[in-house]
Amino acid sequence: MVAARKSIDPRKQPVQKRGQDKVDSILKATLQLLRRNHPNSITASLIAAKAGINIASLYQFFPNKEAIFHTLYQNWLEQITEGFDRIEAEYLLKTDWRDFFTRLRDMIPEVGYDSRVEYSLDYVMQGSHELSEIDEFHAATLSERMAGYLRAYGSTWADDDLRRLAGLLYDFGWAATYRTIGESTSAVEQIYDWTRQAHLSLIRSCLDDSGPA
After folding, report:
1. What is the pLDDT of residue 213?
2. Checking phi first, is residue 154 left (phi over 0); if not, alpha (psi -120 to 50) or beta?
3. Cα–Cα distance measured from residue 76 to residue 81, given in angstroms and rounded to the nearest whole number
4. Residue 68: which of 4, 25, 114, 112 has the closest Cα?
5. Residue 142 pLDDT exceeds 50
6. Distance in angstroms between the alpha carbons of the first and the last residue of the chain
7. I want to staple 161 with a disulfide (CB 3.0 to 4.6 A). Which of 53, 63, 88, 157 is the partner?
8. How does 121-157 read in b/e, with b if 16+ C-beta sit within 10 Å?
């Protein structure tokens, strides 16, 4: 795994403010480009120009554009993880299951990037063997965490069934995110409301004693 990730890891971490400012400008420029361009049309040179730096400065910190995309993806995951931590600490078993999972679901679209950027980053992750392995690992990690919440609220389903359901909830959330791209504010709110209701319905099915069909 270490060898597979080597080519998409940053070359070095900035140790001075000037270096950090360059990294921040690279990441900001990439986000701006992803909101208006397909990832395949974005080049390292285009990112450097958008960031107002020369290409050599970009390559000081990132070996390629995939490494920049990966850093943005990692930053998004960190925000999601911090959101999970916060909701878990504040609400897990301190409120009923419906309120807990509603807060958890509503937290996800409130952090990170807009739906266009998330869609583009997911496209990049799936289009690279190295990046898709990382994406699958994080999806499995979040699904396992969700399965733990379902157990905490009393589900008696088998572990494999809970992980499968948690994975479906994860994928369903992504699908809803894609569906919001280009929609009006009212349509986005409607889509998230439908998604919330569907999530709660699926979750309720594993909190009774009947088990999966």
Report:
1. 52
2. left
3. 9
4. 25
5. yes
6. 37
7. 157
8. bbebbeebebbeebbeebbeebbeebbebbeebebeb
